[in-house]
């Protein structure tokens, strides 16, 4: 069965706290595993979360502040030690190449050749990856930062009643899907369009660290799952602006404007505790009525199923 879920490895900005590790997120999508922003301690968090180095097919770094990349050396060396034999592509801002090289080669270890760099520059970059496309777009932060988005292509959903009405059954269904039309035993022509309906692809976006900017909206547009930084509450909005971060209210504005189905808030300042989580939700609720999750370490958040618009709170 295909698995589409976010495994939360860490949720703290700047510094880890007693309850929150530095950032780290694995988006499992069918056979792909996108490891976003492995902060310090990610290797051990993977162990706690039941994530193996073999599950990782991409390492996507938004920017080279330490809370988003200090876990790269441990993850890279674990990939080498565990003899992962599939390609692991690594996307990161090209302007931070010097930091990537240091992190990639941080200590003495028996190296691997499966990790292939994909430095990102320009306004939009897309890579096909298994069943999906990975897209990077620039954000707005004191150092260059890119957000990412995963998109499944749209397809078609077969309509059993229409198939039955036209006498299409068994191997004929596969023939119809392959060829777009077929002639039934009674001599009539049946087309794929008559017996199926469009099925929109699913999508997820990962937005951090950033101010409000066009890239954040473009990445979040229409996604089923948006993982977004909400470092501060609105009473610290001056600090958010100064350091290039979002408030929970701004994260809610993005989710509302983009028609996001499930919103995951994370990258919390160490000034807040879990007792403050309802305040983050309250700010989001001023603009966004959809499903909101305030991320905690080791939480698993499913990508909402198609047509499943019920509010679901993910639990550990
Ligand atoms: Zn950060
Ligand atoms: Zn940052």
From TrEMBL:
Zn(2+) 2 binds at residues 67-68, 209, 267. The keyword Metal-binding applies. It comes from the Bacteria. Binds 2 Zn(2+) ions. Its cofactor is Zn(2+). Gene3D superfamilies: Ribonuclease Z/Hydroxyacylglutathione hydrolase-like. Residues 21-211 form the Metallo-beta-lactamase domain. InterPro entries: Metallo-B-lactamas (IPR001279), RibonucZ/Hydroxyglut_hydro (IPR036866), RNase_Z/BN (IPR013471). The active site is at residue 67. It catalyses: Endonucleolytic cleavage of RNA, removing extra 3' nucleotides from tRNA precursor, generating 3' termini of tRNAs. A 3'-hydroxy group is left at the tRNA terminus and a 5'-phosphoryl group is left at the trailer molecule. Zn(2+) 1 binds at residues 63, 65, 141, 209. Its EC number is 3.1.26.11. The keyword Zinc applies. Keywords: Endonuclease, Hydrolase, Metal-binding, Nuclease, tRNA processing, Zinc. Zinc phosphodiesterase, which displays some tRNA 3'-processing endonuclease activity. Probably involved in tRNA maturation, by removing a 3'-trailer from precursor tRNA. Homodimer. Belongs to the RNase Z family. This is Ribonuclease Z.
């Amino acid at each position: 069965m295909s698995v589409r879920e976010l495994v939360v490895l860490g949720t703290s900005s700047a510094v880890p706290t007693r309850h929150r590790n530095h950032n780290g997120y694995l988006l499992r999508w069918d056979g792909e595993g996108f490891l976003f922003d492995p902060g310090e301690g990610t290797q051990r968090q993977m162990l706690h979360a039941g994530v193996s180095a073999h599950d990782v097919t991409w390492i996507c770094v938004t920017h080279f502040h330490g809370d988003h990349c200090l876990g790269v050396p441990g993850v890279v060396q674990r990939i080498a030690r565990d003899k992962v034999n599939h390609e692991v592509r690594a996307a990161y801002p090209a302007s931070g190449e010097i930091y990537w090289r240091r992190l990639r080669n941080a200590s003495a270890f028996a190296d691997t050749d499966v990790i292939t760099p994909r430095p990102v520059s320009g306004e939009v970059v897309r890579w096909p990856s298994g069943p999906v496309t990975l897209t990077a777009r620039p954000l707005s932060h004191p150092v260059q930062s890119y957000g990412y988005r995963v998109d499944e292509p749209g397809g078609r959903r077969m309509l059993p009643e229409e198939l039955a009405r036209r006498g299409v059954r068994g191997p004929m269904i596969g023939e119809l899907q392959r060829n777009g039309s077929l002639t039934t035993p009674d001599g009539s022509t049946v087309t794929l369009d008559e017996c199926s309906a469009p099925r929109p692809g699913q999508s997820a976006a990962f937005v951090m660290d950033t101010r409000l900017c066009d890239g954040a909206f473009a990445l979040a547009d229409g996604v089923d799952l948006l993982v977004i930084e909400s470092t501060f509450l609105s009473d610290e909005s001056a600090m958010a602006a100064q350091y290039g971060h979002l408030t929970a209210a701004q994260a809610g504005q993005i989710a509302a404007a983009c028609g996001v189905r499930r919103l995951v808030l994370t990258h919390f300042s160490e000034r807040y505790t879990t007792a403050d989580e309802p305040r983050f939700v309250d700010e989001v609720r001023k603009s966004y009525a959809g499903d909101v999750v305030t991320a905690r370490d080791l939480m698993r958040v499913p990508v909402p199923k198609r047509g499943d618009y019920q509010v679901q709170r993910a639990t550990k």
